[in-house]
Specification:
Helices cover about 25% and strands about 25% of the residues. The protein has seven helices and ten strands. The protein has a single domain, classed as Rossmann fold (3-Layer(aba) Sandwich). Helix 2 links the parallel strand 2 and strand 3. The protein is α/β, with parallel strands linked by helices. Strands 1, 2, 3, 4, 5, 6, 7, 8, 9 and 10 form a ten-stranded mixed β-sheet that branches. Helix 4 packs across helix 5.
Length: about 260
């Protein structure tokens, strides 16, 4: 039986994180804070949604290259960057939930002109995403951060939420997590100010362990993220899973050597 060389096992280890939560919770913004981590830049941002305004500041740093996925060629390019990144250090997929819809549109553009996607189209989308996840798991030479919406399972009789999982096509809701080292649920709530006339603030925290029916997992050594991470950033996540990092300003850096 072959013996693994454990001295080199983690030498080139790459971050694989899935951030999910309800729409508007701040998943896209959290993923974009990768632009403030030297070890994660430059970034290839694969967008399946058009909601980019919240990360305008990060794009203006010049460390984020945005690609809007609209075709089969874009999907192939994404896979190529994951395996052969060049200068790219991180791929962000925003979001996996909408990626299925993109694949369905691609299928229709390839010849299926029906208004309603067929069962075969849905199966093709499911299999295409599963292939991508397996590719990330087995061939990624970059850090990978993905986002997804949440999908509550609700008891039809009582209305009680039984579980919350990533919103993915078919059984991928339950299978996607196995391809990531971290599956984190992003919570947010508005906190009223004690000062009259001052606008409320937004409090955010990541649930990184499964409890209360919410699917989550954390493979950081000795569970360094705990059960929840308050005011999460990719710097905090990177430090816990990989090690210390260099934090960058949220402004463009003219000296390219600082990013080398």
């Amino acid at each position: 039986m072959p013996v693994l060389d454990t001295s080199k096992m983690f030498a080139d280890w790459k971050l694989k994180v899935l951030l999910y939560g309800r729409s508007g919770s701040g998943k896209t913004y959290l993923a974009a804070t990768a632009a403030l981590v030297k070890e994660l830049c430059p970034i290839y941002w694969f967008a399946t949604e058009r909601g980019m305004l919240s990360i305008k500041t990060f794009i203006e740093t010049g460390r984020v290259r945005v690609c809007t996925g609209v075709s089969e060629a874009d999907l192939v390019a994404l896979q190529n960057v994951i395996a052969s990144p060049g200068k790219i250090k991180t791929v962000i997929i925003d979001s996996l939930s909408e990626l299925h819809a993109l694949i369905l549109r691609v299928q229709q553009a390839k010849g299926n002109h029906e208004d309603t996607p067929s069962r075969n189209d849905f199966r093709t989308g499911h299999d295409r995403i599963l292939k991508l996840l397996r590719y990330i798991d087995g061939h990624a030479t970059v850090h990978v951060i993905a986002t997804a919406n949440d999908q509550p399972l609700i008891d039809g009789e009582t209305g009680r939420v039984l579980s919350i999982d990533p919103d993915m096509a078919g059984k991928l809701s339950f299978r996607t997590g196995r391809y990531f080292d971290g599956v984190y649920y992003l919570n947010s709530k508005s906190v009223a100010s004690l000062v009259p006339g001052r606008a409320p603030t937004v409090s955010r925290w990541l649930q990184v362990q499964s409890y209360d029916g919410i699917t989550a997992k954390d493979r950081s050594p000795e569970g360094k993220l705990g059960s929840t991470l308050v005011d999460p950033t990719m710097s905090k996540i990177y430090t816990a899973l990989v090690g210390p990092c260099v934090e960058l300003p949220a402004t463009r850096i003219d000296d390219a050597s600082l990013l080398a």
